[in-house]
């Protein structure tokens, strides 16, 4: 790994081997790029994706930066592309997913081309809207002509029949069905007849009743309104939406009534159309409207075909244009982060990059200079800094989700020991301890194998949020499934049913009544069952006490082992950073304290298992504190146990002040020595005290506050001492969840499946199987999986990582074109 020199970060060897235990050695580099090749250089670095640029113009707003105009142009082109995509979506077309690997399109030419296409498309849309509006208006007009024509035809027929009746009977009594015009002609003197006017059109059906009431009130009943329902919804010319409408004809007398009617029609959104009461003119108008409708339909279809052809042409190139615009915009955004030198002839960039990428970056700079025909090459030089570099782990599709689990807690400090390496094994294993059932494990395995086998196809599709999350963690679920099968074989549970997979049971019944007794009724007739729990334990009355004891002790052993691993990793962290104080006054007392108590408990568990002793471990641990000098009696497991307990108890008591007092005083002394000039070293000394100080819980060059450091150490000590107890107890969740999973599985098997089987009825059996399957999938394979996952997550974040992991770093985010598509989604 790298080492620090001269207040900066450097590396003795720039190897490119993947190392997940510590993040990649990083360096702060400065690039001096000629203006004429700057764009091409940034483009090549974006393809390389190994350089994280720093913003050298933080005081400038986005509008004050050098390339603000180019960014604005790219934003405008992106707007046009969004318009094209919206139009393609409306037309039911989708952009072509193929991206031709052609040479980069010139930005100016692309801008002109997109402008022309936008203008052409908008013109087509405008013309189409006008034609469509005219077409909808003509369709409404045709409906008015047909329906209103029926009014007049019906009224004329009634009037003729009434006239014949008058002539025969010589009496005149007006009919309510006859139109006002003809009625007046019959009942009044021809010299005194009043000519009635009329307005025709369509009104939305939901407004027709209100429309009629307002007309009646406004004209005081001096109108005659006739409405006819249009069976099918009509496309409104204004709103372009399908609306149920009624055709109306309003007869009125006088200009004042006409003005009121027109205003009411406008207020209710009623479309008015002219109408002639002459039958010949009506037929002529219907013929003309039908002809114009046919012509408009042909014109609209031709326009839509032309528009679809244009959108298809755009769709073929859309993805390439979209990617190109995003690239250009990101390049200019990055160029805005660079600063001009005083001569305005070159740009200066600063940023972080992995040391192994030095040669690749220099090659990219040289290639950009060569391709751009620049007379001056770009300069790459390493800067020394005290700023902490970003954290960069090179992961693959298998290790990435495990690293994400760790990063969700906090990104590792630069070159801090990475818990992600151990999480690959410990996380799925602790999950499986709680989930252990090899039948359920096989179900999980089959589900995740589906995602893994089809990962190429699924990775290019848009999945739902839950499916997307499951697909992203498919390799975590794979490991969880494999470990669940392993622990399930140890527990000997297949949907809670035991199997004699590795041979017959070691026990047999001494007499027929032994199944109702405790293990006294069983005798050992064969060798010990070779792997896992003997199947004979399942179903006996002593099954629960036995498995409880086994799983509880196993949980403590696993918890103490993982906490010890965390403390040991804190030693490697301190050693890597050259921090002797943390080694001697934090790592050593923590290791002694934890193992003096719970390491000793783990030892007692193993000895008890090996010897078959009946000692009460609760009694041993409690009286180790309450009466350390008393004889152990029947609870003694080995010779010298009493002396060992006294020694361990004394060690635990000594470890607490050992953690608390020396470190603050040593830090105070170190701070005083530094300010007195006693700890100055050469610039290129490996153990630079300025750097080393930042890892000693002090505040570097800030003012040293002894009280703050002491209080911090006091809190840290109390937290560790109490945490040693609470964290060990927290690992008992492994026992609790394993027991819950096993009992739930047993309940579903016994009380659902076997109960349904006992009825000897096919329908009940089918219902029982369906309920069992849904209960198993819903509760055990979904809810229990999520529950065990969250508990395993907590054990790693709280009980394991707090022993050594600071997690106060920040991620390495290189400038990369590969992320453009992901950001869009």
TrEMBL record:
Bilayer topology: Multi-pass membrane protein
Compartments in which it is found: Membrane
Classification via InterPro entries: V-ATPase_116kDa_su, V-type_ATPase_116kDa_su_euka
Residues passing through the membrane, by range: 429-453, 474-491, 554-572, 584-607, 643-661, 762-783
Stretches assigned to coiled coil: 107-141
GO terms, molecular function: ATPase binding; proton-transporting ATPase activity, rotational mechanism
Keywords: Coiled coil, Hydrogen ion transport, Ion transport, Membrane, Transmembrane, Transmembrane helix, Transport
Pfam family, one: V_ATPase_I
GO terms for cellular component: vacuolar proton-transporting V-type ATPase, V0 domain
UniProt entry tagged with the keyword Glycosyltransferase: no
GO aspect biological process, one term: vacuolar acidification
UniProt similarity note: Belongs to the V-ATPase 116 kDa subunit family.
Described purpose of this protein according to its UniProt entry: Essential component of the vacuolar proton pump (V-ATPase), a multimeric enzyme that catalyzes the translocation of protons across the membranes. Required for assembly and activity of the V-ATPase.
Protein name: V-type proton ATPase subunit a
Organism: Castanea mollissima
């Amino acid at each position: 790994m790298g080492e620090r020199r001269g207040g900066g970060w450097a590396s003795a060897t720039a190897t490119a081997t993947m190392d997940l235990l510590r993040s990649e050695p990083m360096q702060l580099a400065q690039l001096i790029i000629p203006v004429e090749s700057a764009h091409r250089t940034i483009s090549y670095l974006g393809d390389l994706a190994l350089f994280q640029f720093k913003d050298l113009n933080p005081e400038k707003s986005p509008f004050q930066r050098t390339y603000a105009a180019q960014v604005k142009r790219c934003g405008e082109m992106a707007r046009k592309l969004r318009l094209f995509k919206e139009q393609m979506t409306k037309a039911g077309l989708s952009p072509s997913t193929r991206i031709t690997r052609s040479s980069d399109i010139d930005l100016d030419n692309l801008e002109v081309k997109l402008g022309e296409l936008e203008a052409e498309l908008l013109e087509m849309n405008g013309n189409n809207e006008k034609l469509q509006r005219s077409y909808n208006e003509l369709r409404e007009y045709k409906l008015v002509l047909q329906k209103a024509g029926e009014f007049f035809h019906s009224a004329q027929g009634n009037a003729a029949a009434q006239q014949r009746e008058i002539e025969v009977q010589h009496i005149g009594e007006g009919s309510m069905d006859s139109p006002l015009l003809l009625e007046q002609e019959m009942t009044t003197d021809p010299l005194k007849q009043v000519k009635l006017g009329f307005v025709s059109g369509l009104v939305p059906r939901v407004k027709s009743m209100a429309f009629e009431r307002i007309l009646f009130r406004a004209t005081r009943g001096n109108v005659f309104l006739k409405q006819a329902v249009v069976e099918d919804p009509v496309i409104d010319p204004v709103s372009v939406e399908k609306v149920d409408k009624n055709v109306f004809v309003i007869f009125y007398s006088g200009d004042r009534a006409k003005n009121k009617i027109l205003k009411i029609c406008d207020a209710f959104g009623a479309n008015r159309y002219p109408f002639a009461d002459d039958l010949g003119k009506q037929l002529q108008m219907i013929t003309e409207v039908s002809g114009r409708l046919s012509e408009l339909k042909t014109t609209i279809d031709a326009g839509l075909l032309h528009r679809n052809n244009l959108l298809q042409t755009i769709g073929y190139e859309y993805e390439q244009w979209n990617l190109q615009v995003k690239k250009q915009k990101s390049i200019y955004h990055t160029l805005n982060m660079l600063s001009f030198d005083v001569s305005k002839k070159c740009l200066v960039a600063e940023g972080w990059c992995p040391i192994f990428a030095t040669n690749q970056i220099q090659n990219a700079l040289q290639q950009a200079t060569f391709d751009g025909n620049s007379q001056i090459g770009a300069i790459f030089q390493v800067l020394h800094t005290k700023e902490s570099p970003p954290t960069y782990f090179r992961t693959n599709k298998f290790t990435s989700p495990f690293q994400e689990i760790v990063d969700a807690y906090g990104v590792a400090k630069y070159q801090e020991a990475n818990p992600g390496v151990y999480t690959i094994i410990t996380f799925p294993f602790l999950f499986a301890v709680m989930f252990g059932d090899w039948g359920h494990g096989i179900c999980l395995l089959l589900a995740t194998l589906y995602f893994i086998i089809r990962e190429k196809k699924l990775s290019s599709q848009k999945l739902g949020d839950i499916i997307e999350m499951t697909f992203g963690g498919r390799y975590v679920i794979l490991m969880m499934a494999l470990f669940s099968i392993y622990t399930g074989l140890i527990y000997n549970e297949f949907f809670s049913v035991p199997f004699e997979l590795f041979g017959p049971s070691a026990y047999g019944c001494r007499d027929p009544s032994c199944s109702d007794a405790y293990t006294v009724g069983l005798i050992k007739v064969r060798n010990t069952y070779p792997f896992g729990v003997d199947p004979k334990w399942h179903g006996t009355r002593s099954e629960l006490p036995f498995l409880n004891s086994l799983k509880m002790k196993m949980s403590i052993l696993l918890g103490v082992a993982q906490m010890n691993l965390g403390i040991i990793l804190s030693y490697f962290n301190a050693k890597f950073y050259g921090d002797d104080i943390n080694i001697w006054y934090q790592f050593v007392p923590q290791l002694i304290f934890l193992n003096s108590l719970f390491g000793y408990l783990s030892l007692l568990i193993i000895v008890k298992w090996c010897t078959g002793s009946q000692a009460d471990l609760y009694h041993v641990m409690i009286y180790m504190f309450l009466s350390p000098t008393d004889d152990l009696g029947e609870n003694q497991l080995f010779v010298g146990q009493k002396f060992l307990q006294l020694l361990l108890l004394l060690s635990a008591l000594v470890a607490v002040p050992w953690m608390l007092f020396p470190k603050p005083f040593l830090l105070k002394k170190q701070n005083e020595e530094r300010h007195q000039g006693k700890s100055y070293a050469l610039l290129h000394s490996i153990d630079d005290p300025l750097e080393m100080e930042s890892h000693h819980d002090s505040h570097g060059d800030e003012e040293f506050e002894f009280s703050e450091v002491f209080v911090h150490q006091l809190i840290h000590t109390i937290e560790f001492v109490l945490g040693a107890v609470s964290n060990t107890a927290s690992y008992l969740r492994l026992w609790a969840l394993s027991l819950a999973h096993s009992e739930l599985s047993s309940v579903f098997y016994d009380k659902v499946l076997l109960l349904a089987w006992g009825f000897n009825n096919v329908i009940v059996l089918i219902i029982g199987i369906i309920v069992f399957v849904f209960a198993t999938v819903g509760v055990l394979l979904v809810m229990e999986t999520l529950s065990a996952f969250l508990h395993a997550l907590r054990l790693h974040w709280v009980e394991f990582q707090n022993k050594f992991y600071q997690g106060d770093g920040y991620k390495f985010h290189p400038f990369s074109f590969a992320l453009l598509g992901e950001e869009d989604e």
